Give the backbone structure.
Amino acid sequence: MPVLHRPCLRVAMPLLFLLAVVASSRTATGQPADAGDSRQAAVAQALDVLASDAPQQDKLNACRRLAALGGPESVPALAALLSDSNLSHAARIGLEAIPDAAAGEALRAALEHLQGGLLIGTINSLGARRETRAIPDLGRYLTEKNPQVVAAAAEALGRMATAESLALLEQAWPQADDATRPALANACLRGAAALRSAGRGDEAARLCQLLLAESRLTGPLRHAAARQDMLARPADAGPLLQELLASDDDEALHMALLVSREVDAPDVTRVLVASLPALSAPRRALVITALGDRGDATAREALVAAAADTDETVRGAALRALGRTGDASTLPLLLEAARDPADEIAAAAQEALAALPGAEVDQALAAALATVDGPLRGVLIDQVGRRRIVPASSTLVLLAAHEDEPTRLAALRALGQVAGAAELPVLTARLLEPAGAAEQAVVRESLRSACRRALDKDACAQQLVPLVPRADEGTTCFLIELLAVLGGPVALEAIVPSATDPRDALQDTATRVLGQWRTPDVAPKLIELARTARSEKYQVRALRACLRVARQMDVPDDQRLTMVRQALAAATRPEERTLAVQTLGRIPTRDAFLEAVDLLAREELCASACAAAVTIAEQLVARDGQDLAEPLQRVLAASRDPDLTRRAQAALDQATRDLPVRQ
């Protein structure tokens, strides 16, 4: 279990206490104990424990109960424990949880009587409650000699973030020493963030500038103050951002990069671009990446220049950034870089080409593909596929017949991303007569992609079905799987014959995909296969798949019951018969209930039938109780499971409760 630091514990402990209360408020049966014990009785009992000589653990548990259930009546007892070093923490959590103003007043009144850790804990509780009436009291602790007390008071005042609390922090800031300065700065930063979130950016900026004016505020706190100031005054963020970028401190640079992604102001882009010449290559690459993330087109010229940098890391960052900031005018640069011998540069350029926005870019790439020859053609084919430029599909069809194998394979691969019904025959022809194993693999993957994207699944299926009798065994298995990707009635009818084909590979593939079918119209086919499949293995697979449809798919209850009856009739093993009876329990109808009761007579199914009948009866008894009484007596007579017997008796009692008494 991870160790929690103290700030985390202050947040986590109330939650842990409340969970403990919930757990302790349940009876031995596991049910909430709200029927026998009212809230008032539980609170009174907890208060009695606190007033007694009970062991410490009992008193801790009582505090936990009051944290969940207590109100104003609990405040005096909890307040009395604030000076108890063993129980103070639990008492404070109780007071934090009670919304009544009396709880805050009790914490406030206790301040003058406490010292050390007890005082710090009480200050923390006032901060957690945001008890604004305690602001003057907390302000007095900002000049304490104990830096931990100062830190607790400052944090509480920062959490409240009112004009009064922040004014006290401002007044204390000039007198802060090395021991208390970090706590006061953190409190001011918390307050500045709250002011900014409330739309009071000018006040937040003034507070940040107070911190930045202190030369002894260095490191992460100074960077955090600069960030809050820039977020509060985005239009004036330039000078502070420039200061951070010019620093040799890596933390300052990281803060500058964070802010540059948060602040949407034109001056930020200008400052980032202006900083580039003075930066080392690694830092230059980080700033360029931030420019790309900003997506500001005004940085384009600088990024184009950086794409010619002698450092590969800088070049790669600039190319990727152009993918977010470039346009059609940057295409020549990116296309050239995509053929760079350095893999990192080529990959960056290809990534940028794929991300480059705009229909104009698509048109330019499609036009280039139709005219360009040589090494650049491979890059263009790849981009047409990545960007799914459908107008380029006619060019891809031509290139799919190219004599150059890399060009041909690239075109076939790209067709998988753009092909519609009109281009599908190009791929299916290659499926039946591939020019080698590499082409076969590419065509299959392209067909999978095209079928997944297809809007008219049945139209695609109609093009694939005639291929089945012409294909070899391996290709037929692939076509069966492809038809399963499409789904729909055309594909379903085409797959079913293969489930009884003499070839085992076809039977295996067809029964497997039918067993995973996504629509309930497969159920009759599965039942028929359960009766007629050539081996028990496939009969069982089909039967279990049919029961999966009955259990999991949205099917009317009468059809669901028909499936179960058919499965029972077709089942040859006790395992499937038991599974069918268990499925009955998911059909909340009187007919399903009576079906389960009838099955009590079959010894091997009796236990499952009892469970199914009781489950259904529990759902029907409130409405159809009188009709269920006699069958439930049969269930009681057959049941051998104590829990089922208890549930059946409860259902029977409910069913007979309103029956007329016989004279």
Notes: The mean pLDDT is 91.
